Fold each of these.
Amino acid sequence: MDGLSGAASVIAVVDISAKVASLCYQYSVEVEHAKDDIERLRRKVNDTKNVLEKLQQLEQNNPQLSTTRNVVDSLKECYKQLQGLKGHLEPGQGRKAMRRFGIRALKWPFTRKEVEKIVQDIESFQRTFSLALQADQTALVLRVDQKTDRLLLPIAEGASFDSHTEEHNARCLPNTRTELRKTIAEWANNKDG
C-alpha cells in the first residue's frame, strides 16, 4: 500500500474492511461461542468502513479538501491492522480439507482481551477518520456561509470598489465642506503665506 494516493488508500481500507466484516459474519454463523465478540468486531469494522466511504465520497466531490492527505498515515496503519486481522480470520488449509470430509471446524482465533484491544484500535481509527471528515465538512459549511454573506451584502450602484464613473464630475453638495473651503480660502488670501 506504500506510495498510494489518499483516495487509493481509502479505497483499499474500505475493501479490506468489507472482507474482514464478511469473515466475521462467517464466524458468527459457524462458531458456537464468542458470538458477542464476533458481532462487536464486525460492527466496528463496518462502522469504520461506512465512515471511510463517506470520506471517499466527500473527496471525490471536493478534491481540494485536505482530509485524506492528512490521514494517510492512519489509513496505512488501519489497512495494516485489518490485513493482519483478515489473515487471522481467513480459513486455512486444514479447514478446507475438513470440509471435504463433511466436518465444519471453525475456531474463533481471538480471546476476549484480544478482541477488546482490536476493537479499541479500530475505534481509534474511526475517531480519527470521523474527525477529519468533520473538519472538511466544517470547512465546506464555512465556505458556503462566506458565499452567502457576500450575496446578502447590499450593493450601491455606481459606488462599487474601484469605480471611476464619477471621477470627472467632482462636486460637493450645497452647504457641505464649508469649513474646509473657508480654511483654504483664508490660506490662499493670506499674503504672509
Amino acid sequence: PALSQTIRQLEARVGVRLLNRTTRSVSLTEAGKALVETTGPALQDIAERLDRIRGIKGRPSGLLRINASNIAIPLAVTPVVAAMAERYPDVTVEVFAEQGL
C-alpha cells in the first residue's frame, strides 16, 4: 500500500500516469519510461554515495599516540601498529619511545 500510494502521489504531482495497471500486471507508460531514463542515473549515484557514507560511519579515524619503552616498540608495538594500519587506514599512529617506561 505505501508504494502504491507513493506512486499515485508522484503521478498526481507530474500530472500523468507513470504505470499501466491491470489485474495481472504492471508496466511503465511512455512517461514512466522517460522518468526512469532521466532519473535512473541520478538515483543510482545517490544510492552509491549513501553506501559509501554507511561504510565510513563505522570506520575509526583520527590520531592515536602511543608511548612505549624502547624494548616494547619493536617487539609488541610495531606488529600491532602495522596490522592496525592495514585494517584502519584512516587512523594515524604516532609512536613515542620513552626511556623510563
Amino acid sequence: MRGSHADTAGYIPLRSPFHENEDADTDYPVSNAPVRPSFESYTSRSSLDPQAQAEPNRKGSQDSDDAHTFLTAQDDSEQEHVTVHSPSISQRPAISGATSRRDIWGFWVYSFASEVYGLVVLGLFGPVLLEAFAREHGVLATDHSIPCPSASSPALADSQAACVVQLAGTFLATASFSLLIASLGVFLQALTVISLAPLADDLRYRKGLLTLFAMTGSLAALAWLAVPIGSPLVLAPVLSVLGSISYSSSGTILNSYLPGLARGLPEVQALRKAAAPALLKQHSSSSHMQKDSTDTNACYQQHVSDKMSYISSKGIAFGSAAGIALMGLSLLPITILKGSTLALRIALASAGAWWLIFSIPALLLIRRQISGQDSPVTHTLLEGWSSLGNMIKERHRLKMTFRFLFAWFILSDSYSTITAVAILFARVELRMPASSIVFIGLLVPVFAIVGVLLTPVIQRYFNYSQLRMLTVLVFLTSLIPLYGCLGFVPASPLGIKSSSEMFVVSSVFGFLYGGFSSYSRVCYGSLIPRGQESRYFSLFAITDKSAAFIGPLLVGLLANATSSIRFAFPFLLFTLLSATPLLLFAVDMRAGTEAAHLYAQQDDLSNRLNMTQR
C-alpha cells in the first residue's frame, strides 16, 4: 500500500509478455510527471548529439568511457560480473539486465496471483473465521460454565452473546483472540524476513524463494478445507500464521525486483548513458560542475522513481482487481450456505487455489538471474541478522531513509490496525450480516483501484511531489478515526453507528489506501542504495510488521478490557496525526536520494578494493 502514471497517457501494449527478445525501442510508458529539466540542459553536446559524438574529441571520448565504466560498476550490481576496466561504449554489448515486457508482466501477474490472499483472507474472511474458531472453544463472558453458542451455526448470524476463550490461563474475548493471532503472525513474519533478506538479494536464490513462499502460502490456504470448525483450536492459528508469513515474505521479495525493473527500462538506461559524463565529473571537478552533476543525477533518479511508481501502481491495480473478482465469486458459497463457517473455509481455500494457479505463469515470466559469488547458505542466513545491525549502524549515512522508516513505522501501524479491525468492528460492534461484510470487502479494493488511478491526476493538478501527495493522503485518512470518535457521544447519530456509514467510510478508506500503498513504496524505493534492494525492502517490511504487531495487540487488549473495539479510533487518530509532521518537515527526498546514491558508490568501491586485496 509508493505518484504513479497508471492513466491512459502512458501504456504498455497488451502483447504477449513471453516475447522477451525485442528491440530496445519498445512502447514503454511515458512519464506523466510535471515537466522537469531535460538532460540536454545538464550534459555536454558531445554526450547527446550523434554528429558531435562523431567528431574527433579524444578527451570527450575518454570521459564517456570512464563514466560508463564507473556507472557500470556501481549501477549494474545485479549483473553476473563487475567490470572495472571497460572498452569504449561502441564496443560494448547491450546491457544484459535490460528490462523486457516479460519481466514487467511477471511482476504484475504475481501481484494478480498473491494479492487475493491479502484481500480475501487477511483482510476479510480470515479474522472472522478465527473468531468463529475461538467461539467454538469458548464460554460465555458472563458465566464461564456455559459454552458459547455453537459456531457451527452461521458464523455471521446475529449471535448477541459475548464469549471468551481461555488461552495460557487467561480468558480473552473471541475478537481479541483473532487480533492476537494476527500480532503473532506479523512478529514471526519479521523474523523470517530478517533471516532471508540476504538470500533474496542474491539473484541466484531470489526466484527460488519466491516460488517457495508462493507454494507454501497457497497450500496453507487450501488446507482450510481439511480443518472443520470442531478441530483443535491450535490448527487455525497455525494455518493463519503460516499463510501470513508466506504472503508477507513473497511480497518483500517481489518488491525487491521493483528498483531493478525501473532502472532496466530501455529509456531509463539511455538517460543514464547520456548522463554518464556529467556524473563522472561530480567526483573529479570543481564545485560548480559538481552542482550540475548533482542536478543531472537528481533528474535521472526522478525518472527512475516515476517508472517505479508506474510499475508499482499497476501491480496494485491488478492485485486489487483479482481480489474483487474472487470476492464476487465468494458470494456464491456465502449466499448458498448462509454465511456458515464452511462457506468461509471455501472462500479461504479459493484464495489459495487462485494464488497457486496464477503463480505458475508469473514464475515462468520472472527470469532467473545469476549474480554474485558463491557463499554457503548457512553463512548467508546468519548474515541477515548481522546485516540488519549494520544497516542500523549506518543510519547516520542515510538519515532521510531512516527518518522515512520511522514515519512508516507509525503509518503502517495505523493502516494495518484499520484493516485488521474493520471487519471485526462490523461483525462484533455493528452486527452486520455476511452479505454486508462481503460488500465491505468489495468496496475497499474497488475504490483502491480508483485511488491508484486518480491520485496521480490529483498530484499533477496541484503539482505536488510524491512525498507531499503521500502526506495529504495520510492527513485525509486521519479524518476517518476522527469521525469514528463521534460515536462516543451518546446522543450523536454519527460516528460509524450504522451499516450505511460503514459502507461510506470503507469506500473512502479504500480510495486513500490505494494511493497510500503506491506512494509509500515508491518514496522508499527512491531512498535505498542500489544493489541492496532486498535488504532495505526487508527493513521496510520489518518496520511494517513490527508496527503491525503493536497496533492490533493494543487494540485487542483495549477490546478485552472495555468490551468494545470502538476504542481503536482515538489510538488511530493519534498515530496518523503524529506521523504527518514527520513527512512534512523531517524527510527531504532529494537529499535522501543523493545520500543513497553516494552510499552505493562508496560501498561498491569498498567491495572492489577488498577483492583487489584478496
Amino acid sequence: MSSVMRLFIGLAALWGRRCGASFFDHWLEHEARPLSLHEDSAFVRRWSSMRPAEEESVSSRRRLGSTEVSASDELIAAATVDGSDVVIANDISMEAEILVEYVSVSISSETGAVYALVGDGSFRLMHVHYSNMTLSRVLLKGGSSDLGGAIRLDDLSNATISEVIITGNDSGETEFSLGAGIAATDGSNVIIVDSVISSNRAHRGGGAGVYVGTEENGYGTVLTLVDTVVKNNSAGFDGGGLYIRGAQNVATCLCQFCVRLRRRRVFVYQRVLYGE
C-alpha cells in the first residue's frame, strides 16, 4: 500500500474520533463567519475564562524570571535572548518580523489570557531559524510572506505550538507562495496542539493553512498535529488546508495526526505519484 493511501486511511479513521472538549471544539461552535480582530480576541478571552482557574493577582500571572513585553520592539528584542521566557501582557500591533535565531525561547500570553499579535500585511510575523521555540496562547493575524505568512520554521528548528489561533494571514501573490499560516521546511520539527488554523490564503500557491516540505538542505521535516482544526483556508494551487511535499513527510505525519480537516483540503506531493 502506498504512503498516500495509508495517509488517507489514517485520516479517515481519525475523523470519527471524539476528542475531549478543547480549544478547537469551542472554536468550531464560534466560527460561522469571518471575524474582526476585536471579535477574535473576545472569543479567545471567553474561552480562557471557561477553563478552571484560581483567583489570582495580576502579579501572579507573570512567571518568576520571565520578561514581560507590551510593545512590538520589546517582543522582537526579547525573542533574541537565549533562554528567555517572554510573557505578552496585551494585544500588540507588530511593526516588524520577530526573528528567533540560534536561541531557545518561550513566548506566551500571561496566564489566563490569549493576546493577539497583528501585522499590517506587509511582512511575516515570525521566523524561527536554527532555534527551539515554545509558543502558546496567542492569536497571529495579518502576516504575509511568500513562505510562511504567520510563521516560518527552517534549518532544523523545533517548535511546540499550543492553544494558538492562526488566522487571516497570506503567502503573497507569486505562484511559489506557500504556507500562509505556517511553513515548516529543512529538517524542522513542529508540534501543533489544541490550536486553530483558519481563514488563511495562498493566493497563487499552495498549503494556505500549513505547508511542510524540503526546500534547501534536504533534511526531512516532521509535522505533528493533535486536536487541531485546519479549516476555511484557500489556495490558488493545491492544498488549501495542508500541503505535504515529500515522501518522508507523509510517513512522519501518518501516525501522528489527530486533526480535523474540512472537505477536500489535503494535497500530498511526492515523486512516486509521477512514477519516478
